[in-house]
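Task 17 of the worksheet. Students: predict the tertiary structure of the chain below and write it out as structure tokens. Keep your answer in the requested format; marks are given for formatting as well as content.
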Amino acid sequence: MPEAAHTAPHLQDAQRRAFRYDAQDGLTEFMAGVMFFFITRAILEPHLAWVPALLIFPMRFAIRFFKERFTYPRVGYVKLKSEKGRDLGRGMLTYLLVVVFLAAAALWVFGDIGSFTQWKRWLPAIMAGFCSGGFVYLAGRTGLWRHHFLVVFCLGWGVACSLQEFPTVYAAISRWALGMGLVNLVLGVAVFARFVARHPVRPREVGDEQA
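Model answer:
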């Protein structure tokens, strides 16, 4: 038991370094920005609501393609420990329930919990609470400053959009999604550009060329 206790922290640190190593190219943020733009369009045009859901799996393949094309030739391949589906699903459900509970508690204390108008007004902040779970997950996995920044920005921008006056709640949510898309896209491009500049493609060895 004492040996296991000393091993666990080192194992967790090694896993965090692996996730940080894999996230250094900024492709996750770039793809998140693209997805938020599609979400913005779907909010403004409800008949396109099916598009973001349809893009989830293609986005994963796109990230894999870009990593094989740009990331792995520069820094090599790292295999990440995959989450168990049951544990991941339970964690996501718990996070969503906590967000709903906090929203209801805030409206009960500072507003009118029974007012549908109040719920609609604060819907951008509630949506931000839901989406921030992904950034919280990334921040916990990598410990990178930009993932912590995205958590704060996601929540802060959601609250800001809820406090502003918009013609409809859809306009408020679309403004929030657009802001998230812009920030993620700019951050992803900046991180990717720095990554490419700092890690040129390694020249192939003579043995590799002969093989």
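Marker's comment: DSSP finds ten helices and no strands in the chain. The CA atoms of residues 63 and 179 lie 22 Å apart.
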